[in-house]
Amino acid sequence: MKNRKHLNYFFGLDSSTQSLKATIIDSQLKVVAECSVNFDSDLPKYNTTGGVHRGKDGLTVTAPALMWVEALDLLLKRMKKKHIPLNRIAAITGSGQQHGSVWFKKGARQALRHLTDGMTLSEQLKHIFSVKDSPVWMDSSTTKQCKQREKAMGGPQAVADITGSRAYERFTGNQIAKMYQKNRTGYNCTERIALVSSFIPTLLTGDYVPIDVSDGSGMNLMDISSRKWSKKALDCTAPGLSAKLGKPELSHKVAGNIHSYFVERYGFDADCLIIVFSGDNPNSLAGLRLQRPGDLAVSLGTSDTVFGFLSKPVPSASEGHIFVNPVDPKAYMALVCYKNGSLTREHVRDDSADGSWEKFNKYLKRGKSGNSGNIGFYINEPEITPPILTTGITRYDSAGRRVKSFPPAVEVRAVVEGQFLSMRLHGENIGLKARNILATGGASANKGILKIMADVFGVPVYVARQTSSASLGAAYRALHGWICNRGGKYVPYSKILLAAPPFKKAAVPDKKAFAIYSSMLKKYAELENKMMVQGA
Ligand code: XUL
Asked: What does pLDDT average to over the chain?
């Protein structure tokens, strides 16, 4: 009889905007291996910047689906070369940048099922896409379709009540509506539409894999209460859509076994299970173990996001999103997303601190909490929260007068304070009230930034020892899904987390500073409104 005891590693994959990352853990949650592929530098022939192509209109943003296919082969090739024991992997799941869609042409399923070891994935799959450039989460080109959806479904609150969010440009349903309206041939010859998160496991199993209910909540198409597609939402998007989407599935369920291509080429065990993948923010929630109301995470990356556990959803017609929880099928999570994250902080660093983080941090340290009443709005990219399509910087002095510039030290503090004030304001509006915060993403290594975060929210800030919370969360979910499957029933996620390492306290709030920020919040909200009315 075959000895299955060697199958004790769990594999988390994270297909983010800029890279494909792998984290492998053992059954005690210890990270045993990591590896990654960077789209721009490792696959230069696709000519991406930050993993994407930007349209001339300043609104359209896409990524070539074939690049993601090639990245998967490259990642696994690297892992094999590093002698990472892929033959010991019991289960794989993963995380995808949210909202992006992948379009499979009629006949693609046959090509997926018949993958052979003799050729690479990209050689075999280069013709399977009906739309080669996948719209991604940074796309803001579907305002018209958002308006149409809100009109057809009874207004923004009605859309939010059913799908968890009012209509947002990047949400997949609105991207699909645009595709149907602008590229009818592409839409009609599509056999299946996947999210980035259901696309990668489609390659791994060699067959279509369901969209999970958590990432599926980011489409403006799913009824977040029933966890099924909403007929009303599908009907105002495009005809025949339900068949092209497949049925949504709970996030801990098994999607299938790994395809023989990966067994033969990379040495995976044929019993390796593929668990349904989810979005990057849902996987980060799993990786950061947010399990109670008040457990908040602030992710500082390409996008900045603030998210947390919710038991009772209160969807808003103006901001934020409610998603089904990825590890507790009865619960929810709430999220507020900003496009102006790391790249915007880097712009300010380049313009005001000679491109040096050291100088940037010196300025932060030198300044006073509240920045003597100066407030700035830094819109480098069309923004999601609040919705602002025109880019530019708007600065107000302590008397609320618009000014052209700030001295460098004020500018640096204004970008950081403004981002956290906005997160507190918009997060609280959808029920995210912090008891403690876990900071993650690249900028969470910056102590000066974390101190301001602690002061603005008035709670301690912790960091995980592991920076890639999405791929780690996926690895935890792989173990969770595997255990649920073995027992034939859902097992509470907390049960698999007992051996998880503690988080490290990185910043504590100062009471006086918290009081300053609390009183500043009203002024910030007023100026935000003023700026939106006047334009950036
Ligand atoms: C969330 C969102 C971004 C992407 C980044 O709604 O659009 O955080 O998930 O990959």
From this structure: 95
